[in-house]
Inverse folding.
């Protein structure tokens, strides 16, 4: 190699060294600390030589994961919480890949911790770590945990933690501890909630919290003794669980409320929820019934619990009435059968069409062991319903008696609409409601021309007289 060539090679090498140095300078975080050295210092070993143990949690349990890890981390007064820079690219890489790229190319320096505001109740939220590295000591061993929220747009449907520790068995012990704390400290415990789907793939995407209803017994108009039977079956079992277990009796139970539409089944369920504040309640109706397996698992973990399946005839119709497989029905049956006998979990099902309900669901003990009819209100019940819905309106007792006597075969929802319509008639006339408005509303709704409206409100069409 001649002198000119050597000069060129030397100059070019100097140029490359300068480019690399500038790249490293720009990639270095403001505090001068890169990811790999920080982990090496904490763990006492090269993190790239330590196996990463990954554990996932359903997206709807992400906040519980954050609560559990925070509680464990805070036991160490010297614990640290770090962020990882690098923008959106870090979401495409595992912790092992992040460490390798950080060490070789100085990518993904220490940065700010990412947080997400997550609901913990109907009116409360928590700032949970959505992407952050927890450094702490667990069981006298150094541990690093990368905590991530679910990121469906990056192909990650579940929340997860990626654990590094040079000590054998620590990762497994930590995972077990996290699971225990997720159950003990779950924000879902004692809540009323529904499960929602994911917009990216099948499965539960999140939960919605609901205010627990505050109905009283005065708000419920049902045949005498019905509420007592329901309370005994739901709360009595929970209250006497120890005696039942000692006697070898099972705790799981199934209840079925049936009757025509509009008779008050959902209203009754709402009343029960308000009187059982210690129960975790999962409400499933319409499309959310597809999550019955997830609801059963949640109820088992957070017992005492109640799973409510409204209008279960939509998925549990008698298999003889329609050909082909019904996988959703099988999920319902498996959820009922899959609970251990000592699980303090109740399934409460409602239906408008008990006549077509799947016999395997309705008639087998251990699936549904108490079936209660919520019938059309009799005359006394209709009078009580009028009192309730007309509370504060100047209708006379005589007018209410007359309407109660002349509305045989109607439902509670029909009476509610009747009172509303009477008030509307008076409002259009620019005055307060009177007995005449109540009578007019009753005549309109009972008129044969309104049979479609009566049907929509749950009242059967009367048979024409000869």
């Amino acid at each position: 190699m001649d002198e000119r060539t050597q000069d060129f090679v030397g100059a070019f090498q100097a140029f490359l060294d300068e480019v690399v140095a500038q790249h490293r300078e720009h990639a270095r975080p403001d505090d001068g600390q890169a990811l790999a050295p920080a982990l090496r210092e904490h763990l006492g070993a090269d993190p790239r030589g330590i196996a990463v143990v990954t554990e996932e949690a359903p997206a709807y349990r992400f906040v519980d994961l954050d609560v559990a890890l925070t509680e464990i981390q805070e036991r160490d007064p010297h614990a640290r919480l770090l962020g990882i820079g690098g923008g959106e690219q870090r979401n495409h890489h595992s912790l092992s890949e992040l460490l390798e790229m950080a060490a070789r190319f100085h990518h993904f320096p220490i940065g700010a911790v990412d947080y997400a505001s997550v609901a913990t109740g109907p009116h409360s939220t928590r700032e949970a770590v959505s992407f952050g590295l927890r450094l702490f000591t667990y069981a006298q061993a150094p541990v690093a945990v990368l905590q991530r929220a679910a990121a469906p747009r990056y192909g990650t449907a579940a929340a997860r933690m990626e654990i590094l520790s040079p000590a054998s068995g620590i990762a497994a012990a930590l995972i077990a501890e996290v699971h225990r704390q997720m159950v003990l400290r779950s924000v879902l415990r004692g809540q009323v909630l529904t499960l929602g789907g994911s917009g990216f793939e099948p499965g539960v995407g999140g939960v919605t919290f609901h205010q627990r209803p505050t109905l009283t017994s005065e708000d419920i108009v049902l045949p005498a003794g019905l509420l007592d039977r329901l309370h005994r079956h739901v709360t009595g079992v929970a209250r006497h669980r120890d005696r039942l277990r000692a006697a070898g009796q099972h705790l799981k139970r199934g209840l079925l409320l049936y009757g025509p539409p509009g008779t008050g089944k959902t209203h009754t369920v709402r009343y029960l929820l308000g009187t059982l504040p210690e129960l975790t309640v999962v409400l499933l109706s319409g499309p959310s019934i597809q999550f019955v397996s997830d609801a059963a698992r949640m109820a088992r973990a957070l017992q005492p619990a109640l799973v409510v399946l409204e209008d279960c005839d939509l998925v549990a119709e008698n298999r003889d009435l329609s050909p082909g497989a019904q996988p959703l029905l099988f999920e319902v049956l498996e959820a009922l059968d899959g609970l251990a006998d000592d699980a303090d979990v109740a399934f409460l099902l409602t239906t408008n069409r008990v006549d077509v309900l799947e016999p395997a669901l309705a008639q087998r003990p251990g699936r549904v062991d108490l079936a209660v009819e919520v019938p059309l209100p009799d005359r006394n019940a209709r009078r009580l319903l009028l009192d309730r819905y007309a509370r504060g309106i100047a209708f006379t007792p005589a007018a209410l008696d007359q309407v109660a006597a002349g509305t045989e075969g109607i439902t509670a929802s029909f009476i509610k609409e009747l009172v509303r319509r009477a008030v509307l008639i008076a409002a259009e006339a620019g005055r307060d409601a009177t007995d005449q408005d109540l009578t007019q509303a009753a005549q309109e709704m009972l008129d044969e021309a309104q049979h479609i409206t009566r049907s929509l409100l749950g009242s059967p069409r009367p048979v024409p007289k000869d």
User: Anything to note?
Assistant: Confidence is low (pLDDT under 50) at residues 19-32. Residues 237 and 373 are 21 Å apart (CA to CA).
